[in-house]
Amino acid sequence: RGCGWPGSGGSRGGAAMDLFGDLRRMNKRQLYYQVLNFAMIVSSALMIWKGLIVVTGSESPIVVVLSGSMEPAFHRGDLLFLTNFHDDPIRAGEIVVFKVEGRDIPIVHRVIKVHEKGNGNIKFLTKGDNNEVDDRGLYKEGQNWLEKKDVVGRARGFLPYVGMVTIIMNDYPKFKYALLAVMGAYVLLKRES
Amino acid sequence: LRKNVEDFTGPRERSDLGFVTFDITADILNGKNGLETIFDWNVKQLFLYLSAEYSTKNNALNQVVLWDKIMLRGDNPRLSLKDMKSKYFFFDDGNGLKGNRNITLTLSWNVVPNAGILPLVTGSGHVSVPFPDTYETTKSY
């Protein structure tokens, strides 16, 4: 099949009209092709994410810092890269991302106390660098220690600012929908020559 | 790297509480080239911490952070602190401090880059400290 569509105008002013004109003139096969293209991009993205989960051992290998409790090291909007290898022991000084039982929000703080038994059972306490007190107030009622199962991962690398996009999308859902709509429209309507 | 300590312990509720005072003299250097300062273009700050590591009957391995400090780029990478008290309570998980002959104090730091990997480095040199066999009644601290 050839490039371009019969009658598609060349002038810049007519570009928007051309887009809708193309949409009307697209036949079914072309539409299916575009949808498949779109599905392939989404699948690839998902596969890369799943691959990262496998390689790092963490259920959420990339997290965004949500609070200022680790300043001045990390600020809200920074991106953290995590690993969670089973054989990596938890040691004082490490930065861990954990979830309190029953809550969804991951917390990024530092390990300040570790007590490990001979059989490998570890219990540990965390504290945000920028907080005055340790995290016992954040844990579940009656819970004094965290365990390996509460850990999402250990922070191994970091990029500043990049995670701000996620925070903006969370705080302003209209922005998220607008972004998705634009991305979707671009992929569906993009023509391959 | 050199630290020296004097200490006494007291029981609180049912766990041992240790009191430690220490001096720290340290030069934080870049490991790759021993003479260069750690603060290169990609080091935003260092998070320094003094941790006590020991074994007890209850737990094969215990680590407690006694003191920490944030050192920003531009600060002097040379530490010379005297007569410091621990910032955090040195509670054991149980009564393993009494008579414990071997508590190892180590200075470590977390390098926070402007962007990139977050390494944890342990300083060379450490000090072993014994705790006495008896408890002390509360002293002013």
UniProtKB/TrEMBL annotation, chain A:
The way this protein sits in the membrane is described as: Single-pass type II membrane protein
Which InterPro entries does UniProt cross-reference here?
LexA/Signal_pep-like_sf (IPR036286), Pept_S26A_signal_pept_1_CS (IPR019758), Pept_S26A_signal_pept_1_Ser-AS (IPR019756), Peptidase_S24_S26A/B/C (IPR015927), Peptidase_S26 (IPR019533), Peptidase_S26B (IPR001733)
Please provide the record's keywords in A-Z order.
Endoplasmic reticulum, Hydrolase, Membrane, Protease, Signal-anchor, Transmembrane, Transmembrane helix
Q: Name one GO cellular component term.
A: signal peptidase complex
Does Nucleus show up as a keyword for this record? Answer: no
UniProt keyword annotation of Hydrolase present: yes
Under Enzyme Commission nomenclature, its number is 3.4.21.89
Please give the name of this protein: Signal peptidase complex catalytic subunit SEC11
Q: Which organism is it from?
A: Mohoua ochrocephala
Organism phylogeny: Eukaryota, Metazoa, Chordata, Craniata, Vertebrata
What family name appears in the similarity comment? Answer: Belongs to the peptidase S26B family.
Its Gene Ontology molecular function terms? serine-type endopeptidase activity; signal peptidase activity
Q: What task does this protein carry out? A: Catalytic component of the signal peptidase complex (SPC) which catalyzes the cleavage of N-terminal signal sequences from nascent proteins as they are translocated into the lumen of the endoplasmic reticulum. Specifically cleaves N-terminal signal peptides that contain a hydrophobic alpha-helix (h-region) shorter than 18-20 amino acids.
Sorted alphabetically, which PROSITE patterns does this protein's record hold?
SPASE_I_1, SPASE_I_3
Q: Where is the Peptidase S24/S26A/S26B/S26C domain?
A: 53-138
Question: What is its quaternary makeup?
Answer: Component of the signal peptidase complex paralog C (SPC-C) composed of a catalytic subunit SEC11C and three accessory subunits SPCS1, SPCS2 and SPCS3. Within the complex, interacts with SPCS2 and SPCS3. The complex induces a local thinning of the ER membrane which is used to measure the length of the signal peptide (SP) h-region of protein substrates. This ensures the selectivity of the complex towards h-regions shorter than 18-20 amino acids.
Q: Name one GO biological process term.
A: signal peptide processing
Q: Where in the cell is it found?
A: Endoplasmic reticulum membrane
Family matches, as Pfam families: Peptidase_S24
Q: Provide the catalytic activity annotation.
A: Cleavage of hydrophobic, N-terminal signal or leader sequences from secreted and periplasmic proteins
Write out the transmembrane intervals.
31-49
Automatic annotation (TrEMBL), chain B:
Q: How does it sit in the membrane?
A: Single-pass type II membrane protein
Q: Cross-referenced Pfam families, in alphabetical order?
A: SPC22
UniProt keyword annotation of Transmembrane helix present: yes
* InterPro entries on file: SPC3
Compartments in which it is found? Endoplasmic reticulum membrane
Q: Which UniProt keywords apply?
A: Endoplasmic reticulum, Membrane, Signal-anchor, Transmembrane, Transmembrane helix
Q: Which GO terms describe its biological process?
A: protein targeting to ER; signal peptide processing
- GO cellular component terms, semicolon-separated: signal peptidase complex
Superkingdom in the source lineage? Eukaryota
Q: Which family does it belong to?
A: Belongs to the SPCS3 family.
User: Which purpose does this protein serve, as stated in its record?
Assistant: Essential component of the signal peptidase complex (SPC) which catalyzes the cleavage of N-terminal signal sequences from nascent proteins as they are translocated into the lumen of the endoplasmic reticulum. Essential for the SPC catalytic activity, possibly by stabilizing and positioning the active center of the complex close to the lumenal surface.
Entry protein name = Signal peptidase complex subunit 3
- According to its UniProt entry, this protein's organism is Mohoua ochrocephala
Gene symbol of the encoding locus: Spc22
